[in-house]
């Protein structure tokens, strides 16, 4: 087979910005025979978003877990891209970075592959997803979030819709919690203008995302020269991850690389602990999630099986928004309930609220 160039689109953006949802929204808009492979880098060793992606029309999903492709696992991306091309020969590869990834190193690796493979790959675009609801909050704590907004070919404004366009149903009394007013959106745009007033911006249309024609074929001119490593932020120190579990593992990890900071503790520090012998129901978990402080806890994701149910759910929580998606249904019953979650947030500020959360759901930190 004659070798041809495989375009690579890199999606970056902070934790919970909505990168996976936007990527998946592109797929139904593509020709049926258009082959897309997703290379995904996830925090923790529970591949939640990858499992959602595997339920889509993607040709394949490749994962690099529990480390960042732009620093600790810097060499693994090139190897993965070469393997994807050899095995699937796709029309396009989409890379979804971890929430704290600085894209310059990844982009330069792709530029190197362009030369090493005589044009076998091409960096088509770096696309940054901005969470309009929360950007002005996490931008203050994350130098990487600023870098992501500065060094990109296209900025996608996500979660800017009013309450009537939410991605999941919420009670009427909660709608104001998720409303982005015109003034708040103007403030986000002002912040983005201070960081980068040259890159085009598009608003996502809820789950419809944006048309592929506006994202694919941008022919990026970024990172034609090696970025200065001295200017790159110590992004892996910004985000801390903690695993919370209850009962037997619901999903086996396929790969583990300890690239990011992990914390360990005991939920016994809290007096409100729910014993693991007490049944875990949805109301208890939702109540615990709603009590999480968005200033220090940014993302919770993983697998849940409620008491006496056979169904396993995927939980996605980000800055107060959450949804449950059916993962699998088995004949096996959960007993009192099971959890396998990864909690992510501000380094040095995560342990106390995670201990409280684990206590409320009868889990333990591991």
Features:
single chain; 366 residues; alpha/beta
Mind sketching the topology for me?
Blueprint (H helix, E strand, L loop, with lengths): L5 E8 L5 H8 L9 E7 L5 H7 L5 E6 L10 H13 L3 E5 L6 H14 L4 E11 L3 H4 L4 H8 L3 E5 L23 H14 L5 E3 L35 E8 L14 E2 L19 H9 L6 E9 L5 E8 L2 E9 L8 E9 L4 H11 L2 E2 L1
Parallel strand pairs: 1-4, 1-5, 2-3, 2-4, 5-6, 6-7, 8-9
Antiparallel strand pairs: 8-13, 8-14, 10-11, 10-13, 11-12
Mean pLDDT: 79
Name the strands of the widest sheet in spatial order.
3-2-4-1-5-6-7
Q: Please, what is the oligomeric state?
A: single chain
Strand coverage percent: 25-35%
Kindly state the percentage of residues in helix. 10-25%
Overall spatial form: globular
What radius of gyration results from the CA coordinates?
20 Å
Distance, first to last CA: 48 Å
Number of strands: 14
| Poorly predicted tracts of residues | 163-177, 253-272
* Sequence of secondary-structure elements: EHEHEHEHEHHEHEEEHEEEEHE
Helical stretch tally? 9
Broad structural category: alpha/beta
Q: The biggest beta sheet, please?
A: 7 strands, parallel
């Amino acid at each position: 087979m004659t070798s041809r160039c495989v375009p690579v689109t890199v999606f970056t953006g902070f934790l919970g910005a909505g990168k996976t949802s936007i990527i998946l929204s592109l797929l139904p808009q593509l020709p049926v025979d258009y082959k897309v492979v997703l290379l995904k880098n996830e925090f923790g060793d529970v591949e939640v978003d990858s499992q959602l992606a595997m339920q889509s029309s993607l040709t394949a999903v490749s994962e690099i877990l529990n480390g960042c492709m732009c620093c600790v696992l810097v060499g693994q991306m090139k190897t993965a891209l070469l393997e994807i091309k050899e095995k699937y020969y796709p029309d396009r590869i989409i890379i979804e970075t971890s929430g704290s990834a600085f894209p310059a190193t990844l982009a330069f690796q792709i530029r190197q592959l362009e030369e090493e493979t005589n044009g076998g790959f091409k960096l088509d675009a770096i696309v940054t997803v901005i969470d309009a609801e929360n950007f002005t909050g996490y931008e203050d704590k994350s130098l990487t979030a600023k870098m992501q907004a500065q060094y990109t070919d296209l900025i996608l404004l996500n979660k800017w819709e009013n309450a009537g366009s939410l991605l999941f149903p919420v009670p009427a009394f909660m709608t104001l919690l998720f409303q982005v007013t015109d003034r708040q959106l103007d403030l986000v745009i002002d912040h983005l203008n201070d960081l980068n007033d040259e890159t085009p911006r598009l608003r996502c249309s809820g789950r419809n995302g944006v048309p592929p024609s506006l994202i694919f074929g941008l022919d990026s001119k970024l990172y034609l020269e090696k970025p200065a490593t001295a200017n790159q932020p110590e992004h892996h120190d910004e985000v801390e991850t903690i695993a919370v579990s209850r009962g037997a593992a619901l999903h086996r990890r396929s790969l583990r690389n300890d690239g990011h900071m992990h914390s360990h503790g005991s939920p016994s520090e809290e007096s409100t602990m729910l014993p693991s012998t007490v049944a875990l129901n949805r109301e208890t978990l939702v109540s615990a999630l709603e009590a999480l402080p968005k200033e220090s806890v940014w993302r919770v994701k993983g697998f849940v099986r409620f008491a006496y149910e056979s169904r396993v759910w995927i939980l996605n929580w980000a800055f107060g928004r959450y949804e449950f998606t059916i993962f699998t249904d088995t004949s096996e019953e959960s007993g009192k309930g099971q959890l396998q979650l990864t909690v992510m947030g501000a380094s040095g500020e995560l342990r106390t609220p995670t201990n409280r959360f684990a206590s409320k759901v009868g889990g333990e930190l591991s």
